[in-house]
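Bit of a strange request maybe. I'm writing a small parser for structure token strings and I need a real example to test against, not something I typed by hand. Could someone generate the tokens for this chain?
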Amino acid sequence: MAASKADTGEIAKPATSPQFEIRRCTQPEEFAACVDLQKEVWQFADIDIVPIRMFAVADKIGGQVLGCYEGKDLIGFALSIPGSRSGHPYLHSHMLAVRDTYRNKGIGQKLKLAQRDDAIARGFELMEWTFDPLEIKNAYLNIEKLGAIARRYNINQYGYTSSPLQGGLPTDRLVAEWWLKSKRVTGLLEKGTRPTVTPLTKIEVPGEIYAWKASENDRDRAKDLQKKNRERFLAAFAQDQSVLAYERDSSGKGTFVLGNWDEDWSYASQP
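Reply from user aminoacidic:
Good idea to test on real output. This should exercise your parser:
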């Protein structure tokens, strides 16, 4: 990797807005605020909490701990750690949290874009993260607003979690690949253009999924849907298809659109 701000320990200054400021977290009290917000958002038991020292380590070894502030109050954060795949460095974004009362204000997107600005300034080509394919709003953000793709599916990646948001289901995850300087991403973020996708597979998630996961009486419906969609993703990925678009309708249903990606950014999919 060429010489960059990573070599001096500096970090690119993320963009700010009049109401919210996004900046690097470096102090123990700032990491503690991130841990508190993590507990608030996911309602984890102690065994599942990412501790303060992990935030400190990420900051020291070339990862990212970015906080979104309104005045002095932390209302969101993003945590990433560096990784290596096939000899190439990349950033793995492990957590992104936004306080409940500040959701649907674009803060998650602002944090992701700040991560991208910093990653590019430090010479990275790729950011990855995992997301639950049953979470409709999150999938829409990742695919449609950020331009990530997905072509890997991990079954029960984190084991069974204490967070009630998971509804007792296995923690199946899609892996988002965000190729920071790809034509797909730069066209979307800089020009507002999306490439044409020829659909080969469509995989649907009904809007009722949240109610099913929250209800003991309907949880089996959520498990059945997860299993059916898992099999469809794995079959499509085995045919070299990628998630390239995401549709939502007035009923709240989300639909993954898979096809062939025409750009050759591939090392993240190698063992």
